UniProtKB/TrEMBL annotation:
This is Alpha-galactosidase. The keyword Hydrolase applies. InterPro entries: Aldolase_TIM, Alpga-gal_N_sf, Alpha-glycosidase_related, GH, Glyco_hydro_36, Glyco_hydro_36_C, Glyco_hydro_36_N, Glyco_hydro_b. Belongs to the glycosyl hydrolase. CDD domains: GH36. Residues 29-286 form the Glycosyl hydrolase family 36 N-terminal domain. Gene3D superfamilies: Aldolase class I (3.20.20.70), alpha-galactosidase from lactobacil brevis (2.70.98.60), Golgi alpha-mannosidase II (2.60.40.1180). It comes from Listeria riparia FSL S10-1204. It is an enzyme of class 3 (hydrolase). Substrate binds at residues 200, 367-368, 444, 477-481, 527, 549. The keyword Hydrolase applies. SUPFAM superfamilies: (Trans)glycosidases.
Amino acid sequence: MPIIFHEETGQFHLFNKDVSYVMELKEQFLVHAYWGERIRSFTQSDTYPKKDRSSFSPNPYRTNDATFSLDNVLQEFPGFDSGDYREPAFEMTYSDGTKATQFQYASHTIYSGKKRLDGLPATYVMEDDEAETLEITLADNIRGIHATLSYTIYRDRSAITKSVQYQNMSEHTIQLNRALSSCVDFDDAAFDLLQLPGAWAREKQIVKTPLAMGIHVLDSKRGASSTHQQPFIALLRKNTTEHHGDVYGFHFVYSGNFTIRTEVDTFSQTRVLVGMNSHNFGWQLEPNAIFQTPEVVLVYAKNGLNDMSHTFHSLYTERLARGEHKLQERPVLINNWESTYFQFDEQKLLHLADGAKALGAELFVLDDGWFEARNDDTTSLGDWVADCKKLPSGLANLSSQIHERGLKFGLWFEPEMISEQSQLFQAHPDWHIHVNGYPTSLGRNQLVLDFSRQEVRTEIVRQMTEILDAVPIDYIKWDMNRNMTEIGSRDLTPQQQMELPHRYMLGLYEVIDYLTERYPHILFENCSGGGGRFDPGMAYYMPQSWASDNTDAIERIKIQYGTSLIFPPVMICAQLSEIPNHQVGRITPLQTRANVAMSANFGIMLDLNKESQETLDAVQQDITWYKKHRQLIQFGRFSRLISPYESNFASWSFTASNQEESLVFFFKILGAASEPFLRLQLRDLNPEYMYAIGDTTYSGEELMKFGLYLNPDMSGDFQSKVLHLKRLVTKM
């Protein structure tokens, strides 16, 4: 049984075969005791030492114990203005203008399974026996506010999810100023903090720093999770590597503004808070109303970062992504964007499709520029009607001709945006996010539609369904290329204006949920100028994401390596593009470009008319090879072997669940004179199996403990190779 409540000690113990999470009631406050490797029997009670540590640390008014202070005890749900001066998980303003809140235990419920979060993405279960859930209700009866803390532990995964539901039980409106989803307190600070910051075309870069005293804040105030920060951190014990050491991972299942606040206090205790950003946030909680926070996924791993990643990968593939595509092989696509940009017509597209079919591509994607008067990025967003000049026979005819060639047909949309030069803007100039009477900034020559408004959502859904009901479409690339500014909505009261960013996200989720349910056969791909909103919230609705607009293979090695910390390869899309690369101008060998792109969901973005026959033949061979190994790459066990952040090399592998087959990708970044030899130790093999690599046979034990020298025959910059390991029937 994964959740036990010991009534005599007031202790909650969540556990499975890998992990334990322990809380206990102390003076009716919910305090944190332990999170880490499984403890079979947690018998201690009152685990936190009792000591009056400071006269400046007040004691709760409901107790007479000078040795107990909220200022230093480890807590599950710390508040504001009641004796804890550290960062709070919540903050509220009451009708009298004050904020003091002190939640205490009221009740709890334990049940099998996991409830859905109303209107929000979240992990789920297929059968109730996959997980157990603990709901703990805390109450401040003086203020008339309840908070229900939800904890779900999976039976077979080292993952726990947390969220909070607030309910106003009073007769007055309560303003939520901060409503975070999770707090975890540690009794020490001997950690390194790992994060995934970035920028457009340089997403999810790995940065690791020692945890220092004070407050470290990662956040987004952009109205989206953003390219600049991923809503993720991991705390690593010192000297943790990819394969060794304790890791505590936190990932927020939300696509809007977020905050992750890590505080080390004066006693070298660490607090990690995760949730919606309180910047530009306020929620009017009316009497009897409920506010539900998004979910946080917590993963503990005792064997390093790869161990953490394996948990995230399986959880997100199997119990975050939804729909018929989540476990299906993804098609090899060709996208016309870098080949044509806005300058195309029907014949050019069909010619490109013919060339792609000859190479073995399976899906043709028509990117930006297909709708009315869209000849550059200054016009037409919001007018989702095919351009009759570029496509005189219409989208349905183009789709039909693509399908006749044996290809699937995909289409690009940016439904959340509007151009000032558009019919929709002329008809509804107040439908975008703006402050009345105040100038609105432009980003990429476009404005953000106010998806908090029902009439806006209804119109965009009407336009999209009109196309999707009439045109056979197999794939949609959903883009979003602009963050919020001048945040205001015509339909919200002055007291509600700070609700807009979250109301926008709820509206967006509603639209995407409707469309993906109405068109279950369409493969939706999430995009936001690349990775600008590549987060688990979007992964719930769309099972794959365009990882970056940067298609340079060498830049992509780092981007895809960082992304793989939390997302599996089947959720990551990559494409083989032209040289010189359109983003950085680099000239990289074709095979290296292909090997990087084939390490994810593979596609091509080439002007086939400009490529030599030699190049086309090579691309055809790569597509054939990828299809042969696609199941292993997309759904095998992925492990990182060498980090490009720490070396001139990079490597990763894909291994079958039965350990009978593995692919090892190896990259050398820059050439060097008199270079030392590098011995690569493989992972995930069966030590008792014999494996063939070409004509040579090795034991799994030898490959994992000794390894292989891979760089002696690699000269020059930007080199790569792929090893295919197949198990031989003969054992040692």
